[in-house]
Amino acid sequence: MDDVMRQGGCACCDGAPHAGPRPGRRGLAIGALTIGALACAAVALPLAPAVGRVPATTLTPDRALARMQAGNAAWRRDTPMPASMGRDRREVLAGGQAPYCVILGCSDSRVPPELLFGAGLGDLFIIRNAGNTVDTAALGSIEYGVGVLGCPLVVVLGHEGCGAVAAAVEVVEHNASYEGVIGDMILPIIPAVLAARDAPGALLDAAVIGNARRTAGRLHRQSPLLEEAMRGGRLKIMAARYDLNEGNVAWFETV
Fold it and tell me: What are phi and psi of 124, to 5 degrees?
């Protein structure tokens, strides 16, 4: 620590220099105690409702799911449901948000959740990454959507022809390798591919569904907050698969 400080950096900032004067030993000790106390407080304190003038949704988990299904049915008929998107809605939401569904979806540009579920501004709390996998940031975001914003529904949304799942299939079937961190990114998908090899039909599609179901099933097992919400009847977690051609969303229970 002292060597780092003499060089104008700080161990807690990976050696990056501070803009202001460097603290002395007493200041470092007090700072460490303060950080420790804050960390303990953060662990002990329960999640509080989001501050704002927009009350949380009153939809039950089943009603939220029915609304998502109705929105997708309208999308398939090319008669999208009317969605609140204008200035009045923006001004209301400036005071807070009250979405009714958390979606963990793929980054694929062909799978925009608001469109395929007929949702408006502020209706969905969306986390997207290639392959709809869960890391710390994704799980924390989902917990925020449920525990703070009061969302009664979480949907893990896979889709037809997912490139991230296809890459995981190539690893399993042909021992493929990828540059950069793409290989690390698809590691969580490989167990779903392995499990899908015995499933009927095309391996890629079976792996897409298996990956969504497996991820959805892991959420409440990894998160006591989500598990408690499910036990209390305040939350439903579903897996889903979107068809690029037909626009249909198929729904699956978690595994």
Answer: -120, 140
pLDDT by residue (tens digit) across 177-225?
999 999 999 999 999 999 999 999 999 999 999 999 999 999 999 999 9
Q: What is the mean pLDDT of residues 113-136?
A: 96
Six-digit token string for 194: 């392995």
- Retrieve residue 242's tokens: 């979107």
Residue 18, marked binder = no
Annotated binding residue 106 = yes
Element (H, E) at 146: helix 136-147
The CATH number of 61-252 is 3.40.1050.10
Please state, in angstroms and as integers, the Cα–Cα distance from residue 42 to each residue in 34, 36, 46, 96, 181, following that order: 12, 10, 8, 23, 31
Ordered by start, the domain boundaries in the chain are 2-44, 61-252
To the question of whether residue 220 is assigned a binding role by annotation, the answer is no
On whether 162 is known to bind a ligand per the annotation, the reply is yes
